[in-house]
User: Fold these one by one.
Assistant:
Number 1:
Amino acid sequence: MSRTNVVGDALAQLSFLVYGTLERLAAEHGLSIPQARLLGILRDRTPTMIELAKLLSLDKSSITGLVSRAERRGLVKRTPSATDRRSTTVRLTRNGRALVSRAATQFETQVSAFLDCLQPSERGHLTNLASRILAAHASSRDIDLFPATRPDAPHR
Amino acid sequence: MSRTNVVGDALAQLSFLVYGTLERLAAEHGLSIPQARLLGILRDRTPTMIELAKLLSLDKSSITGLVSRAERRGLVKRTPSATDRRSTTVRLTRNGRALVSRAATQFETQVSAFLDCLQPSERGHLTNLASRILAAHASSRDIDLFPATRPDAPHR
DNA sequence: TATTGTTATACTCTATAACTATA
DNA sequence: TATAGTTATAGAGTATAACAATA
């Protein structure tokens, strides 16, 4: 990271700080980053295996193992699709939801802790800037950030 | 990562975006994230295996394989320590240095591209906020993917 | 024929424990 | 004894290719 790329450098380092925080926190709950991401996605979605593959940018064969390991631990559950007998939907169990809720709360606490050096209004501004970067990127890739608010997302 | 965890959600997703960018970019060069981190560290250091373990927060036994795979590809080289016959120092080869330099340049370009959706003044504000967070934690964590390099110190 | 999901396979990455060589 | 490094082993995570069941 050179001096000529101050913005990119700061963004990258901030991202690594947050990523590392999430990684350590997930580990305290016996979760890897992929497992934590899976549970995080399932908090407000009930996707099929294929949809999970797209959301996580992984091959469908990788999803099989990821979901199976989570299922073996009782954190998620496979359910046959009602409309397509080829499809399987994945959802959190009660235990899985409790775990991801605890972890998310702690994560929020830790992130807030290292935002202590900012004023409340600055924290809001940071959230706003981050959200806009994400929105711009998501729209450029046709990814659905808030599926619950979209009634009928057409598939490509 | 629910909607109520606004700050944590936005920062977590932003970190996945940046991390994923590095992952894809590294993959284009045939590198994994751990391999990229290894090469990044070696850009301005010639550590022993034990020192690498500390820098990467990995067990020494993990370093053995990491370095061996990089060495097999001709990217790094093991050299016996001159002062301690138990020790091995690791350094980049010419090819390894060329590879990590190309990758780092591309990474900077892509991260900068995320910021195109912001106004220049907003980019400045983001830099300010991120830098202050990082400064408050400068000593707490060493993610160190591509360590901030001095202006243009010549490598030997 | 196309899509959904799993299986078989191979590789990287990681840690723990046991080991060798050197200090 | 203590430290540096490797090896043996086990498991998670990932992709590719081949496959079965369903659309």
Number 2:
Amino acid sequence: MKCRPLPREFFERPTTAVARALIGTFLESTLGGRRCVGRVVETEAYLSRGDEASHSRSGPTARNRSMFLAAGHAYVYFTYGMHHCFNVVTGPEGVGEAVLVRALEPVLGADVMRARRGRDAERDLCSGPAKLVQALAIERAHDGHSLASRPLRLLTRDSFAESFGAQRRLAVDAGARIGIRRSTELPLRFCLRGSRFVSR
DNA sequence: TGCCTGATTGCCT
DNA sequence: GGCAATCAGGCAA
């Protein structure tokens, strides 16, 4: 089936629903003139209320302002002095919710990913939020980019049916989020069951 | 102005 | 399993 970007309505559902629904979709980067695609296998939801781990917990700032854009935009932030992470903005404009994409299964352009990552093992290319950002050449400059348009798009589950079939019903597990200290009790992490490409 | 911490990764033991 | 790398944002003073 032809590659189609996810429609705006896809992102306008509750954030946890979007986080779950993103599993099995495809993230495509044509940055640097090289096409790379990965299947989303792990996500985490970050909410605007009752979530002390969310960057939006204290309202808009210069760093997190993209999180308050309309659903379907990218929120890219810099952390730990050396890494970037990629999020999909969800919810109504001005609310401040997003889904962190934590891991991808390489589908196309694995060699380009290897060169960018400086590692050979397929498992090490996109099995972490900062890894996939490096593999797809995503930068802070893409903060606020609309994910319906190149060079960075999210494509429907129907895409790449030659490799993954229709993917109608995928088994998705929910659990606690990783790498946070607050609101660790919330089950806002979603993984494709059985995938060897998740971060942990 | 200064200090502390973080939605991470990779190397070392 | 432990921990260093490395810096911008957030907050206290």
Number 3:
Amino acid sequence: MEVTTSALPAPPQAPRHDSVDCRRVSQLLARVGDKWTVLIVRSLGGGPRRFNELKRLIGGISQRMLTLTLKNLERDGLVTRTVTPSIPPRVDYELTDLGHSLRKPVDALGEWALTNMARIDAARDRFDRTSEG
Amino acid sequence: MEVTTSALPAPPQAPRHDSVDCRRVSQLLARVGDKWTVLIVRSLGGGPRRFNELKRLIGGISQRMLTLTLKNLERDGLVTRTVTPSIPPRVDYELTDLGHSLRKPVDALGEWALTNMARIDAARDRFDRTSEG
DNA sequence: CAGCATCCGGGTGGATACTG
DNA sequence: CAGTATCCACCCGGATGCTG
């Protein structure tokens, strides 16, 4: 039985932030990448919006998902929900400071996506062509 | 029937990049935020790694998910797969230039997460306490 | 207008067993 | 060691109908 792989409980890796922090980052990305969060955050970037206004703005989201995602965003302190008890009722959603601060890194990722989308598409074409042919 | 909401087909928003681009950014985030991609990309940040090495490094990933995610990353041109036909076989995975370039915006998001994680947790506690009490 | 309740199909992802 | 194949549980998310 050789020691091809170390059986040490503590890996000889970078001393800090490699396991735990990665998890948290991953969890954040799971939230941010959940298909609607970013669309909502960006739609709210220009100022407060009402429920159906957001729905129209985003286009393609079900009201169920809009409700759920907004609730999650509110729970995380990224969005505020303001109810005006009129008839008909009016509810406004708005980014908090924390929500606005999220836009910067998200936009950075967006820049990356826009910049490299063509490269990715090309890579996919190449890969699919190679693996199927 | 009042005009509480504008029925205009073109919203008075930013002139460009609000619908289409958002979708692509969202799609990219869906890939990047798929629970394992970021962990893998970050694990590969220090250089090439072998299959089971990655598995141990990440810890908690099934080999099925590792295989699938690596294949997707390879398909997108973010990772290269190098086979050494020895016995036992050896396969190395390594970030491409494109893959490395992704680390910057992802790390930026990571910074944000680490910086604001406490705030988010606090907001959640507050929210949960309020809604349940 | 804003939002909840319910049903349900499809994809995600884990566990396990097997191959080269 | 580095996968593939299969089965299966879960939950994400859409459609619909109803409330205040």
